[in-house]
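Moderator note: this is an archived Q&A kept for reference. The question asked for a predicted structure of one protein chain; the sequence and the answer are reproduced below.
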Amino acid sequence: MRIGIIGAGKVGFTIGKYFSTRGLQVSGYYSRTAESSMEAAHFTGSRSFKDINELARQSDVLFLTVPDGLITSVYQEIDPALLQGKLIGHTSGALSSEDAFPGIEDTGAAAFSVHPLFAVSDRYHAYEQMPDVFFAIEGDHRALETMIPVLRKIGLHLQEIDPRSKVRYHCAAAI
């Protein structure tokens, strides 16, 4: 399973480094700025991509770790023909995978979201704390059937939640 990460901020750095230290293959990063993509790729031993569609071609799973308000628009930048058979997820605590990825069922991809109940404050060290963090996960049955066992195998504590509960979950987490 090759995992591509779109967004090279704190969360993108953190999950990419955690994945790579736990034996998952990170195909690389695409980001708004080439500099942050190259820095994240170097940190995780992966590649930096200048084209979002090339990252999609080289990945089986795509994680969008961009700000919540950009998830849908960034998703819509990806050529739908490249999504067939892929899993695409995001890390928002408030937005469901269904709402984030409109029309995904027409692409042949499956959607999910996984949210750490943790404030990622340091892009270079937060990955070390991931085994102690609770993660909420929701999404399409096919995506969950694949992602839950993979994420549990690398030591993440997951709880599946109802996508309609995301807003309440996020509010409770903020309090």
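Archived answer notes: The two ends are 36 Å apart (CA to CA).
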